[in-house]
Amino acid sequence: MTGLAADRRTFLKGLGVLGAATLVPGCGASTSPGSTDTGAQRTPGQKVQLVFWSWVPGVDKAVDLWNSQNPDVQVTLEKIPAGSNGGYAKMHAALQAGKGAPDLAQVEYQNIPEFLLDDGLVDLSKYGVKDSQSKFVDWQWHQVAYGDGVYAVPQASGPMGFFYRADLFKQWGINPPKTWADYKSAAATIRQKDPKAYIGTFPPGNSAWFTSLAWQAGAQWFSIDGDTWVVKIDTPETEKVASYWDGLVRDELVATEPDFANAWYKHLQDGEIVGWVSAQWGDAILSGNAPKTAGKWAVAPMPQWEGSQFASANWGGSSTAALKGAKYPTEAARFAVWLNTDPKSIDLLIQGGYGWPAAKDALHGSALDKPYPFFGGQKINDVFAAADKAINKDWAWLPTTPAVYQHLNDGFQRAITGKGTFVQAVKDAQDATVADLKAKGLKVRAD
């Protein structure tokens, strides 16, 4: 196997729900995920109401546009908090209770497998979604397609680049780093030029960011062999990334403060954090939280590993899914495709800051296709368009991805306090993830 892209049917075998009479122990009988058709057929002229749970900024305006154009199929938006303890907890509770779930919901790519494990998603391939496959970026389509089914409609992602203070880099005689070796060299120069400044931070509580760095380096943490999950977090590629950041932290070349925290925002504003390896949506984070630095930033491609073909990675990514029990799945599928492909809808979502569109060729002529004054007039999204084409589409997720993140976070935070290393945190996460899958009754082996 070369990953889920090679044979997506094996993913469902790995969940224990394809070609078997039951789900994992204690979960009850089932066929395949999303196979239970509980939806109704809308009669001509019938007015229907769909409920949509989402946290995406700007989605309310897109929903309003749909409702103005589709009087017979109205969508009621209910805003929910993002994250495992917010909207997802509410979705899982409603699915388990068999009532109260919305017709449509926001589901991030890494969380789709956990919903499949609960048999919580509608297979939208039965409702014409496959006809729209050509409208989406290939690697993002692979994030929602499993076996012969399609369990969500891709919405947005986060191709990555390097944000940096162009004014300070010029002042200090530093070129934007092309390689990770260049990044280390630039980090050292910055520390020499201004002892208060850092090229960036290693955020010990944000293992999703670290996961993206491993993705770029060629790691592929999870795959399926027949009906067995294969876990390989502690690969040489991942250990290379962990060891590299161990060295930067040990040499005090990067900060170790949390990102998305008040101190970090202050340091961006004050010029004490002068770079950020981040996703395209980071433009809104910077402009919204460091407004006094307007015109001083620029974007370069993500630093590369020596001797490797150009590669980027993804940080973030989300879809529009129909949850089990959706009353009108055909209409739900039609709305989901429209929401994420209609040019006017995409522009409204872009204005809200939802991320990088999953729709093909969405850049040209969109609200993204422009110079950004905050970035000195640079058309920064040309960088991210190239990055989006250099993301490994075979990357896959586990039904226990939130737990994987937590294991890594725990290990990274221990390392920051001098109790271990990032490399050890990766090894510990490998062992813990294998144990998690076994506890769910799934077949698993470590590679």
Provide a descriptive summary of the structure in words.
37% of the residues lie in helices and 15% in strands. Strands 1, 2, 3, 6, 9, 10, 11 and 12 form an eight-stranded mixed β-sheet that branches. Strands 7-8-13 form a three-stranded mixed β-sheet. It has a two-stranded antiparallel ribbon with strand order 4-5. The longest helix is centred in the C-terminal third of the chain and has 18 residues, at 422-439. The protein has 447 residues and is of the alpha+beta class. Strand 4 (145-146) and strand 5 form a beta hairpin.
Structure in a nutshell:
The protein is an alpha+beta fold and 447 residues long. Helix content is 37%, strand content 15%. It has helices at 9-14, 59-69, 87-97, 112-117, 138-141, 166-171, 180-193, 207-216, 236-250, 262-270, 282-289, 329-341, 343-352, 381-388, 401-416, 422-439, and strands spanning 48-54, 73-79, 104-108, 145-146, 149-150, 153-165, 222-225, 228-231, 275-279, 297-301, 314-322, 356-357, 444-446.
Mean of all residue-level pLDDT scores: 90
Q: How many runs of DSSP E, i.e. beta strands? A: 13
* Beginning-to-end CA distance, first to last residue: 13 Å
What overall geometry do the principal axes of the alpha carbons give? globular
> What composes the largest sheet?
8 strands, mixed
Number of helices: 16
What level of helicity do the residues show?
25-40%
| Low confidence ranges | 1-8, 17-36
Which percent range describes the beta-strand content? 15-25%
Give the SSE order as H and E letters. HEHEHEHHEEEHHHEEHHEHEEHHEHHHE
The secondary-structure class comes to alpha+beta
CA-atom Rg in angstroms: 22 Å
